[in-house]
């Protein structure tokens, strides 16, 4: 089992850890990690592992067996042995941009209040697919609303509810194609705004910025038709 340090502190850039195992494919499993694994439309983190004067570039992180998180080397190289004490370091610029885009997509789901059928995040832009038959007409209005929420510099926080509580509040689930893990004892909620006056509240396991102002200016990108009742909407970081 890999302890998810990124879940407790999305701004933790480096941390010590111990190598628990090496997978058959050559992936490194640590006892605790700052690397977010690919999931929920968010790419796995990249960065480096250092030990005994050696430095291993990490291309991505993925989910392994059970609760393991596997770090995938960027190139063939010597791996730290099982039991080795390492220092893990994120490619922070990339991670922070992913956090900005992910939080921006939560705001996009507020501005366009339709069911979400898919999504993808990159370090420069993101997109959501909406269950909507017609393209939105007011592009400028969508962009203005997004940047207004960003200008509010609203707080972004998380909390937990039980799967039973979530089942009793189905309006919190915006994603239609992928449902949260209802069988789990607890489900993580990400809130934008204050507890008694929130802008958005939905299940999410990804990493986010602490305040919406940290996203920076957004630009609305293409709006594409994807099937009879699906529209794909892109947003881009301006810098």
TrEMBL record:
Listed SMART domains: tRNA_SAD (SM00863)
Primary localisation category: cytoplasm
A Pfam family reported for this protein in Swiss-Prot or TrEMBL: tRNA-synt_2c
Alphabetically ordered keywords of this record: Hydrolase, Metal-binding, Zinc
InterPro entries named among the record's database cross-references: Ala-tRNA-synth_IIc_core, Ala-tRNA-synth_IIc_N, Alanyl-tRNA_Editing_Enzymes, Thr/Ala-tRNA-synth_IIc_edit, Transl_B-barrel_sf, tRNA_SAD
Cell compartments where the protein resides: Cytoplasm
An annotated GO cellular component: cytoplasm
Keyword Zinc: yes
Alanyl-transfer RNA synthetases family profile domain sequence ranges: 1-233
Cofactors required: Zn(2+)
Coiled-coil residues: none
Gene Ontology BP, a term: alanyl-tRNA aminoacylation
Segments traversing the membrane: none
The keyword Metal-binding belongs to this UniProt entry's keyword annotation: yes
GO molecular function: alanine-tRNA ligase activity; aminoacyl-tRNA deacylase activity; ATP binding; metal ion binding; nucleic acid binding
Protein name: Alanine--tRNA ligase
